[in-house]
UniProtKB/TrEMBL annotation:
SUPFAM superfamilies: P-loop containing nucleoside triphosphate hydrolases. One of its GO terms (molecular function) is ATP binding. It comes from Pyrobaculum calidifontis (strain DSM 21063 / JCM 11548 / VA1). InterPro entries: ATPase_dyneun-rel_AAA (IPR011704), Methyl-DNA_Rec/Restrict_Enz (IPR052934), P-loop_NTPase (IPR027417). It comes from the Archaea. This is ATPase associated with various cellular activities, AAA_5. Gene3D superfamilies: P-loop containing nucleotide triphosphate hydrolases.
Amino acid sequence: MDCGRFFVEVTRDEAHVGRFLWSPVGERWRVMEAVRRGDCVIHYIATRSKSRRRGSFVGVSRVASEAKVVDREELLRRGVESEYLSEWGDYDQFYLVELEGFVEFPRPILLDEAKNFGVEVQQAYLYEVDVKVGRRLVEVGLRGGAPVQRRGFVDERVKRFVALALVAGKNLLFVGAPGVGKTRLALDSAKLFTGCEPVVEVGRDGLTYDDLVLHFVASGSGARPRLGSFAKAVVESWRSIREGRGPCQFVFDEINRANVDLALGRVFTALDLAHRDKVPVLELDEELARPLGVEPGVYYLPFSFRVFATMNVVDRAQLFKLSFALMRRFAYVYVAPPHEKYASEVRVEELRDDFDLDPYVEVALEELSIEPRGGDIPALIRIGLPTVGELREFARGLGVSRVLSWVVEVGEKLGVEVGPSLAVDMLKLAAVYMVFRDKAPRLFDNPGEFSQHDFLDLATASLAVPYLSMALPKIRQRYLLSQEVKELETLKNIYSKVGELFGEQSFTARLFRGLFDELPIDLG
């Protein structure tokens, strides 16, 4: 970001951050007259704020125009919270500085971190900082915070699989220990195949559907509507798509800190590509749309829209805590710490090959070939798809049918019914892998870095293992009640087999071990 000078804003009112600066007109705030178009403002949320991000630097904006003087009513119309404005009851005139190009830091920078490179928070609303200090703070903020420089931690094969999953229409859930690079990977992935920056939300207790979609905040003697982060991503996506830049994806960081079934349950169905144009997310009449500054109408999720979620887990016992209704709508990507070496050694040839792919191949290709509407490309990029016969033979050669036979067999032994969506999702991934591998070498410019074994291992770990986790609640309950649990012995036998089939250092084996971490038993 090119900046003339750098200023720091210290505020308790987070609602206006990135939109404008405001203060009473007076000697204490004369610095407002000093800012010029092209200067940059770094935003700090004061420790006295009610915001969950208090005590941290949260983003940077560019000054769009010099200060002008406005009245109290203008600030209320702009959305300044009345409770903050009431603190300045003795003032009738206020400075207003328009901002533009707000970029939120992927991870807020705490003050103690910022002090390491010369930043101090002064007892002032706005103050100038040295250009070198300001530039350093912005550089650190935009790459995700000083202590998190972990791009190299994530295996390149995982990144390639993520790209395939996106084109195949999947939302992504990144799980792993703190600090392994999940948030960075989510943010980077959300920028693939689009020219629009993602909208970010951080999970927290009490987060509701209204918080994410549409709610009302106090304003003067009444209330005004405010779009939540999810709805903002949808509305901005349609605007960006019309401009030819692609969708503004939604990143839900630390999703497990929120009651996600409560917060997103009403749009679970809309997350499936097949239902995108049937389940509305937002309906705005003229009265609601006007104060929001958006077009009235019914808003559906764009076909190209994806959700990227992250989930912190201290150990693998927490990997399967989310509801199955959520998990089946995501590709489940385990982000391993750097000390865990990854190697896929797939040996599925000995598995039965009796799963009939025919009922699912055509469905998979139909979902991948949804016609673009108004610039909304479901696969994010235009690709040429294989024929039904080509995909059937390719998937069978990969071993997809053998893996599906094995998953169905294991599911029956564990009392889990494996639905058709798993087969369809596996085949959609296989189709995209086939296209990218054969016709788009720009993604697989070095085929040796992403083998067929890597694909099959990551696809099984991301899509199939979460299905089998549905057996855990019943097995755990019966075990704790000291009842005979025949499925437990079955699970142990399967566990010993997984390492042979996929390799002890494969993602499938690691996630399958997570199933046992959920149970109060010793594998011996």
